[in-house]
Amino acid sequence: MAAEIVNPRTASSGDSSGSSAGSIDGGTDQEHVGEPLDSFDSFDPVFALHRGGKLAVQATVPVRDKDDLSLAYTPGVAKVCSAIAERPELVHDYTWKSSVVAVVTDGTAVLGLGDIGPEASLPVMEGKAILFKQFGGVDAVPIALACTGVDEIVETVVRLAPSFGGVNLEDISAPRCFEIERKLQERLDIPVFHDDQHGTAVVTLAALRNAAKLTGRELGDLRAVISGAGAAGVAIAKFLLEAGLGDVAVTDRKGVVSADRDDLTDVKRELAAITNKAGISGSLESALSGADVFIGVSGGTVPEPAVASMAEGAFVFAMANPNPEVHPEIAHKYAAVVATGRSDFPNQINNVLAFPGIFAGALQVRASRITEGMKIAAAEALAAVVGDDLAADYVIPSPFDERVAPAVTAAVAAAARAEGVARR
Question: Are 374 and 420 in contact (CB under 8 A)?
């Protein structure tokens, strides 16, 4: 199966990079109000591009005549089926299993849109599949589930798993996402990876390593504050500590996640036990005083005085989209390195730098799971791509840098072998 990068069913409608005459959310084209939805693509390039979907299935072998048909299907296929029945490991050699990932969601935490349901999540999941193919050479199938219960999702994915070499969990709301991932990892012998957590963490670590290198510091010298205790915030905190960060405090809507609070979920209670060595309590603003790093994965706005109170030479990674928690113009007044989640500013913290190569490396060696060591190797490889070009506005490479995916793939595959989870 090959995920098509362009939609062959969509006729060209000109340069989609330019602005169209109207916008479905801009309120400037009153003549289109009340028109049926399928007319949107007549004036909006986004709808035009998505018409018919963004993916197609493509055969990898020809079926030109009856001889081809007898090899690709019956009777020839029975030989392969029988061989796999006798030796199940052959499924990796004679089917697509080891080259395809299931992109699974329940539609409860889609981008900045929230709980919009499985059908409405499909355009995002199709897009994710395209990114797998474009940036990692990995085929992926979008799977949107009409269930939200933890056990329902786990049982469904377990039953689908024989068809896939890996599972990428996507846009599933916290705290359910943690339990779903854990249970699937326990029950499956293929990589299960919640990208909202770990992809974000890998790219954040890579950028942070280079920012520290640029300013002559080590990770152990840094105290960070993370705004957001959801999937990304929790994963980033744990991963940075695993990689050697000096200290990190995580904040939610009620302030610093600390052991003295009596309103914590199990996930936050566990987080409180391993973070905040400094014993900080109170608001995000108070936690930022003297901090070396701000990492935003929550939205909202951080007041300028709080940014100004950070340590000299601080790093601001304001990753909320479309509105960073700290606008770069403000951040640059006080910070040595500024990163966002947006492509129109330097240093974009973008998951697409990580997940295609991580899965490509894991699939290449038929890894049974993705370990912390594999993720750290991915971050180190990603940081190394920057090399001697390291600068304040270049601590992380572009997703379009052709060196990225091969470097991450190779590093992950090597780490999998070193950690004993590779099967070839």
Answer: no
pLDDT at residue 406 in the model: 97
Which helix (H) or strand (E) segment is 252 a member of? Answer: strand 247-252
**One of 73, 79, 254, 277 is an active-site residue; which one?**
73
Residue type for position 242: E
Task: Supply the pLDDT for residue 188.
Answer: 98
For residue 413, which phi and psi values (nearest 5 degrees)? -60, -45
Bin 398: left if φ > 0, else alpha if -120 < ψ < 50, else beta.
beta
For the chain, how many residues are written? Answer: 424
Q: Looking at this protein, which amino acid is placed at residue 237?
A: A
Task: Tell me if residue 277 is catalytic.
Answer: no
Pick from 402, 415, 418, 348: nearest CA to 137: 402
What three-state secondary structure class fits 11?
coil
Give the pLDDT score at 251. 97
List the helix and strand counts (H, then E) for the chain: 16, 10
Burial class, 117, CB count within 10 angstroms (exposed 0-12 / middle 13-18 / buried 19+): middle
Q: Tell me, yes or no, if 394 is annotated catalytic.
A: no
Report whether 168 contacts 103 (CB < 8 A). yes
Q: What is the pTM of this model?
A: 0.88
In the prediction, which pLDDT does 25 show? 32
- How far, in Å, CA of 256 to CA of 347, rounded? 27
Q: Are β-strands 255-256 and 247-252 bridged in parallel, bridged antiparallel, or unpaired?
A: antiparallel
- For the record, the structure tokens of 400 come out as 């379009």
Both tokens of residue 54?
């963004």
* Omega prior to 88 cis, within 30 of 0: no
Residues of the chain with pLDDT under 50: 1-34
Catalytic residue among 54, 97, 128, 375: 128
**H or E element: which one contains 412?**
helix 404-418
Q: What is the pLDDT of residue 36?
A: 54
